[in-house]
Amino acid sequence: MCGRYAQTRVDDELERDLLVDRILGEPHAPSWNVAPTQDVPVVLERVEDDGPQRQLRSARWGLVPSWAKDASIGSRMINARSETVLDKPAFRKAAAKRRALVPMDGYYEWQAHERGPKTPYFLHGAEPLAAAGLYELWRDHSKADDDPARWLWSVTIITRPATDTLGHIHDRCPVLLPRPLWDDWLDPSITAADEVGAMLVHVPEPHLTPREVGRAVGNVANDGPELVEPVRPED
User: Fold this and answer.
1) Is Cell division tagged as a keyword (predicted)?
2) Is residue 152 a part of any domain in this protein?
3) pTM higher than 0.85
């Protein structure tokens, strides 16, 4: 799964790097310890009056389906498996119509051992990453029709089996999209399940570097660049 990650680029950098047309909402603060249920920056395309527009906005990490009775279900929807995302009722409509990019510097995984505590690693590439995500809008009926907070935007990160050399750390990893696949993934005109499935199947495996880090990242209250520093100097 993907349960923690780092995202330290400010909005101007995200706008440049992910080819954003418009920034919406409050500025996003850098974080070295992004956790579920927090508001995170996402990139998506919406069809506006003048055509498709690539937007940077905030969404709560943990997808809340439109049919949910309350928003608490989102804490159990932080990830969606690529193998079943087109079939699960919570995700299939979003997979067809509401796809997003979730920018990150890298993500954390904990390697289990037969004895002793798990070891945290920060997995990163040569450049910042963009994970495949799905977003959803949920109407909070406890709020008035004119309340701007009546709509909750939420997001989930799609994961896949980790079949490369990183599989020894954790058996799953985020679906990380290279730049040539961004346009199709965000394209709101691509809605057929077979086309979306084909995109997921053909995403190349990432080439990431695992870095052992300190256990302080396990506490969501901790945040700062020291969290991604290696426990021991890298070769």
Assistant:
1) no
2) yes
3) yes
Catalytic (active site) residue 15: no
Output the six-digit token pair for 31: 């974080």
Q: Supply the range of the domain harboring residue 152.
A: 4-228
Residue-wise pLDDT for 91-150, tens only, equals 999 999 999 999 999 999 998 887 888 899 999 999 999 999 999 999 988 888 888 888
CATH number for position 183: 3.90.1680.10
Q: Where are the alpha helices (DSSP H) in 18-166?
A: 92-97
Active site annotation includes 109: yes
235 in a structural domain? no
Q: Is residue 122 one of the residues assigned to a domain?
A: yes
**Catalytic-labelled residue, pool 45, 109, 136, 173:** 109
> What letter represents residue 28's amino acid?
H
Q: Assess if residue 234 is contained within a domain.
A: no
Q: Longest C-alpha distance within the chain, in Å?
A: 59
